[in-house]
Amino acid sequence: MLASDWSTGQPLPRRRRYPRxxxxxxxxxxxxxxMSARRTDLREDLTIAMRMLRxxxxxxxxxxxxxxxxxxxxxxxxxxxxxxxxxxxxxxxxGDGTDQAADDADWPEMTIRVASIYTEPLPEALAVQRxxxxxxxxxxGAITFETHFGTVLGSQDEMNELLITGGLDMALHGRAPSEExxxxxxxxxxxxxxxxxxxxxxxxxDAWSAxxxxxxxxxxxxxxxxxxxxxxxxEPAESYEDLQGRRIRVxxxxxxxxxxxxxxxxxxxxxxxxxxTSLASGAVDGAENTMGQMLSENHDEVTKHVLKTGHAVxxxxxxxxxxxxxxxxxxxxxxxxxxxxxMAAWVVEENKAxxxxxxxxxxxxxxxxxxPPSMDPFHEGAERVGIDExxxxxxxxxxxxxxxxxxxx
Length: 409
Known about the structure:
This protein is of the alpha/beta class. The chain has one domain: Bacterial extracellular solute-binding protein, family 7 (D-Maltodextrin-Binding Protein, domain 2, 3-Layer(aba) Sandwich).
């Protein structure tokens, strides 16, 4: 598999499906009885075959030794020029030269420890698996991965702790690595997938990444959008005015609290694992999240109405331990940077396509999804709660101006 597979924007090929391994003592079909009867003969045949292979191997070694002794001078050692800092040259062949370059490169052997809070079938989890395949193939198996999915290693905060202390090399989740990234949740400051990508790929994003490493001990390799956040409610809501006075659960994130306040609703900070029962009992009137998250948590069972407020974009962060990352050979860093960028581009396209699918699934599950007649009241509400002042406080006046200028590309 080549790195270019990511750039097509199409799902990568699935792993080859191999026959399922049989458990010890398990039989397969009616032929198992005949197989049992032939075991002794097979053992004898295998023993003879192994002896013949040993004899052939010894003969080959003897012939090679004789040929080496008959040479007057030794042939010069082949090199691809990489020791001198040169790029390996593309060779002719069936592909584009990437496979040959990978075969010739002298990649160091290592195992990269990676944890992802996301599990299948989410695109983020699939992307991790494909990244593993791409890197292992590109390096000829020199670089391998130890992967963990879901909450096997704990929560997102616990993953961050492992990352900072060196218990992990890389991690993928949605917990912002610094205050600047938390600012992405400020209501109506980020206008969709592409705007977020332009921001994090700009000099502003580079400065945020440097701040995360310097102040929090985390290298931010990639950031991308995984969904637009909306309000999900127990009772119908068709406009901005319908949200007034509703008790809306939010995470303890400044921007999300400000979003709910901008609707003249009541923010209720609550742990996520308490949300389903609180929605079911009526302790809260609703919540806010991406429709993908609502579906994965079965919130459609207790909230039958979604108002497409589009107040924030949920971001995902691929991060590394700085000591580990900075110890890597520059060629390894460059290769990982390239593959991670291709992976992120693929995931973003998958997530964009998923937005329509999520809405369809919601409707199929009996949820009414409503587009507000106008977004003007939502933007006016954000101005009323002082979103400009909050953005300036978090990002600085100059960066906030840059972020706004990137809205339309």
